[in-house]
Structures are given as structure tokens and as C-alpha cells.
Amino acid sequence: MTNKHQAKRLLVTGGAGFIGTNFVYYWLEQYPDSRVVVLDSLTYAGTRSNLDGLNDHPGFCFVEDTILNQEKVEELLREEQIDTIVHFAAESHVDRSIYGPDAFFETNITGTHSLLKAAKKVWMDEKNLETGHRFHHVSTDEVYGTLELTDPAFKETTAYQPTSPYAASKACSDHIVNSYYHTYGLNITISNCSNNYGPWQFPEKLIPLTISNLLEGKDIPIYGDGQQIRDWLYVDDHNRGIELIINDGRVGETYNIGGNNEQANMSLVNQLCGEMNTRFPESAYHPHESLITHVADRPGHDRRYAVDTIKITTELGYQPVETFETGMKKTLEWYLENLPTWEVTVDLFGTH
Prior knowledge:
alpha/beta; three-stranded mixed sheet
């Protein structure tokens, strides 16, 4: 069977969230004749207005519902003649998973299984698209556990060792997706990405939270010594990787998508402070580094993540377009240019 797949009619779960929003805009820019149906339950991190720029696009449709509603998903697959599911919908914030893991297991495990059951039933059991379908599952590097400073980066063959309820829920969902390939022959692919950043990210994550607090003169909390290292991936570089996997990736395979850019949290925050010092030298909060405050480290905090991208690079020709400097510049400028929307999001964050 060929690995080539022509994705013409997509169901994008979690398409009103951070990465999903960026993916929908990216995909319709690249493939304006596509049909893209977004399914999102609009939890705290999903905002319908994120997609307002597509309201007049003839290929765009938004449906408010949950991935747990298998009957609704089946209905959409049939009525919209969906040939590709791109599954972003997930609870994704580690801190929230520590204090409220139930939602993570329900959405990330049960919800993913509900989607798979719907896909198998409509595409395979009913023989609507027995061969011409694709289920792409978006996962995380956190399923692999943690690395020491000198350890080699995670490969697709690295054994899973999740350390948080969030990571455990994603690891479980990865295994379930793989099982539907091996047991039922569902055409699946999986991507495990490193830390994303860019427009529309909810301000509970490090970069948007830091920008928000810098603008408002609030303390910037840094866990422990701030030397936790992450590989930072600009969101549209992530979407380029997903595009390659959907179109040309081998069915049943997993691909790591990374930015090849490891940064310690403390270094990243200092860079943002320096940028704000340059842009706002007259600010009452200058120098902005004065807002940094160290707080107790969170339980089970992984020290380092990094992914080996040799597989996706050699097989599919993937290369990040953005450097950390260009990606951060775009990110900061987006938040500064979208202050009215951003301020509403910050207010929402304060209520959770």
C-alpha cells in the first residue's frame, strides 16, 4: 500500500486551541480548496474567536461538541465525507494534571478511544473509506520521560517512561492508537512534538505567561533553579511536520517533530526580559528581570526534554524554518499587536 495520502476533507479535533488554531489557518492557506471541520468543546483553553478570521472561508466549518460524543463524530465523518482526522484535542497542562488528573484521563484516553471507534466504524466497518483514510494523532515528547544533561535525545524507539498524569495519559493514548493499526488495520500516524510556542497560546504556559506578566508588571514565577531544559518548536514548524506526515508519512509509524533548539527556562525568560527592556526602556518595570521570582519546584518536574528528528528529516525532508530568535520575535509581536484579545485571555486565566 502506498504511503501517499491526499487529505481533502479534514476533521480537526481541538481546532480552537493553541496548536489546532494555528494548524487550521496553516492548512487552509496551503490548501484553500480543502474542507476543514473543526470539532472543539471550547474548554478554558479553546476559544471560538481564535477562528473568526475563517468565518467567511467556504471550506471552513466549526462544530461545538466533545470527542467523547462518538455518535456525533460518526455523523460528521459520514455527512462531511471526512478522509482525514487530525487529533489535537487534549488536556495538556502538566500542573493541572497534578492537581486534577481525572479530566486528563477522560479526554486524552477515553476521548481518543472514542474517536478511534468512530473512525473504524465509519471508514472500515461501513467501508466508506476502507483504504483512503488517515488518522493522525498529535502527541508529546513527555511520554518518553526525562533526560540527563548528557543523554542523547529521545528517538521514536525510546521506551516510554511518563512521569506526570498528563504524560501518562498521552502515553496511553499513543498505545491505543497504535493498537488500532496493528489489530484493525486503521491507517494511523503519530507525531511526538517538543514544546510549542507561538500565537494563540493560553497564558498558563511559560512563554505567554511570561509575556503577560512582563506587560502587567507581575512576578514571573520560575520553578526551582530554572535550569529545566526544553526543545522549543515554533508552532508552524510543527504544522509543517504534521503536513509532511499526513501527506507522505508511512502508515503505522511515529515521527518526532522538534525545533533542534534546546533552551533552559531561565535563559528563555531572561531573553524575553531583555527584549522587553529594549522595546520599553521607559517602562515602570524596567529592568524587567526584577520581576523574576523563584518558587518551589513542582512534583516530578522533568529536567530535560529533547527529540531526535533524524527520522522525519531523512524520510520526509523536514526542517524547521524558524530559528528561536525569529520565532520569538514573531510570537512577541503577535501578542503586542493583539492586546485587546490577549487581555481578555489573561483575565480568563485569573479565574481558573
